[in-house]
Specification:
Layout: E1 3-6, H1 14-25, E2 30-33, E3 38-43, H2 47-57, E4 66-68, H3 72-78, H4 83-92, E5 97-102, E6 118-122, H5 127-136, E7 140-144, H6 157-164, E8 170-173, E9 183-186, E10 193-196
Parallel strand pairs: 1-8, 2-8, 4-6, 5-9
Antiparallel strand pairs: 2-3, 3-7, 4-7, 5-6, 9-10
Helix pairs in contact: 1-5
C-alpha cells in the first residue's frame, strides 16, 4: 500500500520532501500536486516506473510525457531552444504552460514521441514541486493524473489512495490544486502552435 504524506502547500516539510525524493530515486511512482492538477511522476531514468505509469493511464507510445524542470537551465539541457524561445520562456515560467520541443540527447529515446522526437517541458509554480525538484536535482517525468475512463483529473488525495494505493509507492496530499491542465504549445515547427488551451493565458503567448 502506498505511503501517504501530508505536505504543507506553502511551507513543505524538508524531512518529508527528502523522504519523497528517496522514493523517486528508488524507482517509485509518486502522485503529487502541481500548480494545475495532481500528477503521476517518476525518476527520469527509470524505465520500469515509466511503464507502470503507462499501464495506470493506459497510454500508447504516442503520448507526450512532460519533464517538470526546476528552472530554465534545466530546460536547456533537455530541449532544443533558441534565444527567441528562451526570452518567451523566461516571461512565462514558472507557470501553467507545457512547451513541446525537439529533445536533446539527454532525454531517453523511450520518452519521445516516435515521429517528432519531442518532449514536453514545464516549470511548475508551486512550493512542493520546487522543493521536490530542488532536492532531486533533476527533472521529474510526469503526466496528469487522469484515469482511463475519466475526463477530469482526480482531485481528492483520499480518493487517490483508495483507487491507486496499490499501484503507486507514494501519494502526496498538498491540498486542492484544481482540474484545469496546463496550456500546451508545440514549439517544434516554424511558428508556435496551440495544442491545448488550459490554465495558462493564451493571450500571454501572443498567438
Amino acid at each position: 500500500m502506498a505511503q501517504f504524506f501530508d505536505i504543507h502547500p506553502d511551507n513543505p516539510q524538508p524531512r518529508l520532501i527528502e523522504q519523497a525524493v528517496d522514493i523517486f530515486r528508488a524507482g517509485g511512482v509518486v502522485i503529487y500536486p502541481t500548480d494545475t492538477c495532481y500528477a503521476l511522476g517518476c525518476h527520469l531514468g527509470d524505465k520500469a516506473a515509466m511503464e507502470r505509469i503507462r499501464r495506470i493511464r493506459r497510454l500508447d507510445d504516442k503520448h507526450n510525457f512532460t519533464l517538470l524542470c526546476r528552472d530554465l537551465s534545466d530546460i536547456a539541457t533537455y530541449a532544443r531552444i533558441d534565444n527567441q524561445d528562451y526570452r518567451q520562456l523566461k516571461s512565462l515560467t514558472p507557470g501553467p504552460y507545457t512547451f513541446v520541443y525537439k529533445a536533446t540527447k539527454q532525454v531517453p529515446r523511450r520518452l519521445l514521441h516516435p515521429k517528432r522526437k519531442a518532449i514536453g517541458i514545464r516549470v511548475p509554480d508551486t512550493p512542493i514541486c520546487r522543493a521536490l525538484l530542488g532536492a532531486l536535482d533533476e527533472p521529474i517525468l510526469s503526466t496528469t493524473l487522469i484515469l482511463p475512463d475519466d475526463s477530469d483529473p482526480l482531485t481528492d488525495p483520499y480518493d487517490m489512495r483508495e483507487i491507486l494505493g496499490h499501484c503507486v509507492e507514494l501519494i502526496i496530499d498538498g491540498g486542492y490544486c484544481g482540474t484545469e491542465p496546463t496550456t500546451v504549445v508545440d514549439m517544434t515547427g516554424d511558428t508556435p502552435e496551440l495544442m491545448r488551451a488550459g490554465k495558462g493565458s493564451i493571450d500571454a503567448l501572443g498567438l
